[in-house]
Every structure is written in C-alpha cells, then in structure tokens.
Amino acid sequence: MNLYPIKFYPILKERLWGGTKLGTILGKELESDLVGESWEISGVNGDVSIVANGPHKGTSLTNLIDEFPEAILGKSVLERFGKEFPILIKFIDAQKDLSIQLHPNDELARKRHNSFGKTEMWYVMDSDEDAELIIGFNEDVTEEIYTESLKNNSLTDLLNYESVSEGDTYFINAGKIHAIGAGVLIAEIQQTSDQTYRVYDYNRKDADGNPRELHTELSLDAIDYAKKDDFKVSYEQKMNAANPMVNCPYFKTNFISLNQNIRFDVSDRDCFTIYMCIDGDVLIENDFGSILIKKGETVLVPASSSHILLNSEQAKLLEITV
Length: 322
Hints:
Blueprint: E1 11-19, H1 21-24, E2 35-41, E3 43-44, E4 47-48, H2 61-67, H3 69-73, H4 75-81, E5 87-94, E6 100-102, H5 106-113, E7 120-127, E8 132-137, H6 143-151, E9 159-163, E10 169-172, E11 178-180, E12 184-191, E13 197-200, H7 216-219, E14 243-247, E15 252-258, E16 262-265, E17 273-286, E18 289-294, E19 298-301, E20 307-311, E21 315-321
Antiparallel strand pairs: 1-2, 2-5, 3-4, 5-12, 6-13, 7-10, 7-12, 8-9, 8-11, 14-15, 15-21, 16-20, 17-18, 17-19, 17-20, 17-21
C-alpha cells in the first residue's frame, strides 16, 4: 500500500484572543485578524483533518484509518485506542490572554463527556517581550480558598506566572490550572479532547456582548490544588539526534535540530510518527514517498514505514509518537 508521508489541510479557528502570527510567522493563509489556532492533525468529531497531498488527497483522517487502520496507526495504537486518533496537534497564537482554565482527567472526561481527558505540552515558538504563561498555583490552596477567590475576583493572586522565551517547553497534566498569556505563539501536543473548564475570563464579553460561559462547578473536583514545580521541561539539544522532551502515557515528544541528513530505522516502532517543523525546512521521506515541509507545517508518517529520512541543511522539528 502506498502510504507516503501525509500532510493535512490546517483547520483554522477564529478566537476572541487570536491574532495574525499564524500568518505572519507560520505562513498560514488567514481570512481574519483573530485567528487563534491551527489544528494541524485532528480526529475530533466535527473537525476531522483532510489529506492535502498525494493519491489520498481529499480523504479524511477518519476514512484513512478505517481503510488502513494498522498501517496508519500501528497495531499497538489500535490495541490501546481503537480507531480513534489519540492526539491533537495545534499551533496557537495568543494575541490576548487566554481564559484561565483546566482540563479533566481521563476518568472525569469519560464519565461526564464520553471523551478522553486532556493532558498537553507546549513548545514556545515565539514570544513578545515580557510575555508570560500561567501554570499552576503559587501556593497550596484548598477548594474553599479557591472558591472564595472566584467570589472576590482575586484568583489571579493565587496563580504562578512564568516568563517565557523561544524553546521553552511545558508539560500540563490534566487538572493543572493554566493559561497562555498575550504575545505567545506555541506548538501544542495534546490528547484528542476538546474538554476545557474555563474558570476565569477577566470579565470579557463574546462577540454578542455576553459574558463567556464559566465552568465553576465542573472544575471543583477536577483541579489539582497543590503547588507543584513539575511543569518546566528540560531537554538536550544535540545536533542531528532525537532529544527526549516528554514521555507520558499519551504521547512522546523529541526535539530534533538538523544541519545534515539523518535516517531513522522505525521498523520496530509500531506507531505513526508526526513531525512539526518549528524552524527551517525539511524533506521527509519514507518507503513510499516524500514531502517538503517548512516552519509551521506538520506531517504524519504512517506506522507501516520501515525507515524515515530527514533531509535538511537547517531545521528544527518536534517528533511525536504515542
């Protein structure tokens, strides 16, 4: 079967807090000045990615998996997740602060929403001067302290603020309160889930002038109230090698910086491989074809590949498997 490296059309999402960096920095074709997200590879119902290259152009990710389940996903992935694509790949541009939020874990998400939970990671691609992220609390809190802070509009006093710069990487496990701050452009890898509990939104109004929905009650038993310094990811940056970043039950991510061609034997991987190009450009080749991607583009290499060639004189990539 001819399962070459597959690129998908980006699914662009207009957001109240979005901007133009997905166009100016990542080269997306924007029709609005408020584009906040580019969903690069998605199996989320209603937002399923469509193949953009080769003989399977125009085919949905869902139909591709139905036709070639083991060849696309890998046997081990099928055994764990069935035919549901287990991760969601995005680029996010926050021109304004995002709402303060958290995500339920697998158990709560399954019980309440018949969904996966949402654990995620962020790689900072660009940030304005003095830009920040919110990750976790700055002290141990209780449910009572938390709810009181919502009532008196002082939640932000309890939160941990992180100054960021390009290359900074963060792991956000389900239950951790967080928000992307204004001026930050990130690559995000997450479980396939769109379940978000918004708990504070700076009293902003939506396009119709209404306050945006909050999920105060749903959040109470989903939050991790403890102060934890477990979110900043340290990783090596050896050239022309896969440098481990995150290894969790839902995805594994490596950082690769190239100045020459490298070849990986993936015959025993039994899993698809995703590459997000975060700088430069790279020709990605497997047994059945090749594709050139540049900064801001993403490709899926099917599990049936025996090898992957990365051909580049200068590129930085995130390599993702499950």
